[in-house]
Amino acid sequence: MALPSIEAEDGPVRLLLTALRCEKGDLDGNLRRHRELFAAGREAGCDLVLLPEMSLTGYDAGAALTLTDEIVTALVADSRDGPRLSFGLCEAAAAGETDGRPQITQVLAGEGVVHAVHRKYALPPDERPEFRAGVGFETVPVEGTTTVTAICAEVGSEEPYSLGADVVLAPSAPGLYGPRRVSDQDWQSGFDWWRGSVRADAERLLHPGGWLALSTQAGATVDEDFPGWAALIGAGGIVHAELPDWREGVLVVETP
User: Fold this and answer.
1) Are strands 103-110 and 113-119 parallel, antiparallel or unpaired?
2) Rounded to whole angstroms, how far apart are CA atoms 230 and 233?
3) In the chain, where are the structural domains located?
4) Cα 189 to the chain's mean position, in Å?
5) Are 232 and 15 within 8 A, CB to CB?
6) Per-residue pLDDT tens digits for 56-108
7) What is the pLDDT of residue 1?
8) I need a labelling partner for 171 at 20 to 30 A (CA). Which of 10, 49, 115, 123 fits?
């Protein structure tokens, strides 16, 4: 899978950010793309590869997995000899859970083990009936830098920023409402909305010296459109590095 790639200037923490099409329920295809991007991150000397919200399963409540499913444990094992890997999935409720709804989960793996699991806490109204909320946020060290994960709508909530992490990791899958995108102008409109929304949140919430690292689902799936964007954004909503549009791509960047 050859995706357009942009590389930014040097700094202490090296990230591979992605705008990636994640077809719903295509576990084998999504796993293959994850492994290709992980290998690209390792070759580029990255400390962390960040994949979008629901990247492994696609944005599909019917494709829910447990963290012990073979496809998940295999991907975690891949991190044994490379950078850390943050990937998303629809997580099935554990046996015996009173609330059987799945959760929107982001796994941070490295050295072949799971280092952290964040389950989306700030669910917007359209997600609340279908998914179960998580319990909050925690900071996780990556190569001497503190990180916190904020999934999509959580980018606009105050709590993850209040923990004072150096880098807010923002895996996202913002679906575009209305008619399906059929022209570049349609896609550009959706992209402009998403880019403006994220920048406004960063301007309002990022502390001086903090960074927001964004990876987004990109393109059309079977029933939904996603305005792909990968970017590293600093305080004041200033974009340090970014992919140029809504299409799939890879951004290798280091926090200054």
Assistant:
1) antiparallel
2) 10
3) 5-255
4) 21
5) yes
6) 999 999 999 999 999 999 999 999 988 999 999 999 998 888 899 999 999 99
7) 54
8) 10
pLDDT the model gives residue 226: 98
Residue 4's pLDDT is 60
User: If DSSP codes are grouped into helix, strand and coil, which group holds residue 5?
Assistant: strand
Please give the full DSSP string across 107-148, using - where no structure is assigned. EEEETTEEEEEEE--S--TTTTTTS-------EEEETTEEEE
- Selection from 110, 8, 92, 105 nearest residue 49 by Cα: 110
pLDDT of residue 155: 98
Can you say how many angstroms the Cα of residue 222 is from the centroid of all Cα atoms in its chain?
A: 20
Nearest residue to 246 (alpha-carbon basis) of 230, 227, 220: 227
Alpha-carbon dihedral 236, 3, 181, 253, rounded to 10 degrees: 0
pTM equals 0.95
Tell me the backbone φ, ψ of residue 181, rounded to 5 degrees: -70, 125
Asked if 63 and 102 count as a contact pair (C-beta separation under 8 A), the reply is no
Cα–Cα distance for residue pair 87/53, rounded to 1 Å: 7
Q: How confident is the model at residue 54 (pLDDT cuts 50, 70, 90)?
A: very high
Which CATH class, in words, describes the domain spanning 5-255?
alpha beta
Distance CA 79, CA 252 (A): 18
C-alpha to C-alpha distance for 47 and 14, rounded to whole angstroms:
5
Q: What is the DSSP letter of 80?
A: G
